[in-house]
Design a protein that fits this description.
- By secondary structure, the protein is an alpha+beta fold.
- Helix content is about 15%, strand content about 35%.
- It is built from three helices and twelve strands, in the order H-E-H-E-H-E-E-E-E-E-E-E-E-E-E.
- The strands form three sheets. Strands 1, 2, 3, 4, 5, 6, 7 and 12 form an eight-stranded mixed beta sheet that branches.
- About 25% of the residues are buried.
């Protein structure tokens, strides 16, 4: 990011600080549909993967591929409470949770199909991330507690003026804790 106070995210960390083996790109101009073979390679590149992070749109493509056994025989839907069989269904691929990423208002605006393909073409691709979220993988950090200050009423209104400060970040404990597949087009998943 251009602002040094702004969070850079996994893409910047993978591109600048991790080995090239953690980044998977299409060789086709304009990108390709997600290939499950490429996803298997990315999973193999991560030490103890426990999450596949995708846009909500790409998660729907996993659901569609799961309905076609010739494409994805390894997409499972498990309840989040295995003891009772109740709760929200969690989609898994090869035993790894598929986590759709949405913004605060439950909209699909994170990881949209607006990334440039690495070989060229229109801004029409997205990425997914395979990660190990744990103390020896990807983890959240903070420096101190959340602080807030209220300065009082804004003159002539019912609003209060204040600020909230939270110094938070992300750490990666091992270079094989995350992998990125880029150049994914808005097309059906292939085997």
């Amino acid at each position: 990011a251009g602002d040094p106070r702004q969070f850079d995210g996994l893409q910047t960390i993978i591109e600048n600080f991790l080995p090239a083996s953690q980044s998977f790109n299409s060789a086709t101009s304009g990108g390709d549909p997600l290939s499950l073979l490429l996803l298997d390679e990315a999973i193999d590149a991560v030490r103890n993967p426990n999450a596949i992070m995708v846009s909500a749109s790409l998660a729907r493509k996993f659901w569609a591929a799961g309905r076609d056994s010739s494409v994805a025989g390894f997409v499972n839907y498990l309840p989040n409470d295995p003891a009772t069989g109740l709760g929200v269904a969690i989609t898994q691929y090869n035993g790894i949770n598929i986590i759709p990423i949405k913004n605060t208002f439950n909209r699909d605006t994170i990881l949209p199909y607006t990334e440039p393909a690495s070989v060229g073409g229109a801004l029409q691709t997205t990425s997914l991330y395979v990660g190990n979220f744990s103390t020896d993988g990807i983890y959240g950090t903070q420096n101190g507690a959340v602080e807030s200050n209220i300065y009082g009423n804004v003159p002539g209104s019912v609003f209060y003026k204040g600020d909230v400060e939270w110094q938070a970040g992300m750490g990666i404990d091992h270079p094989l804790a995350v992998a990125r597949i880029a150049d994914i087009t808005d097309a059906a998943i292939t085997a």
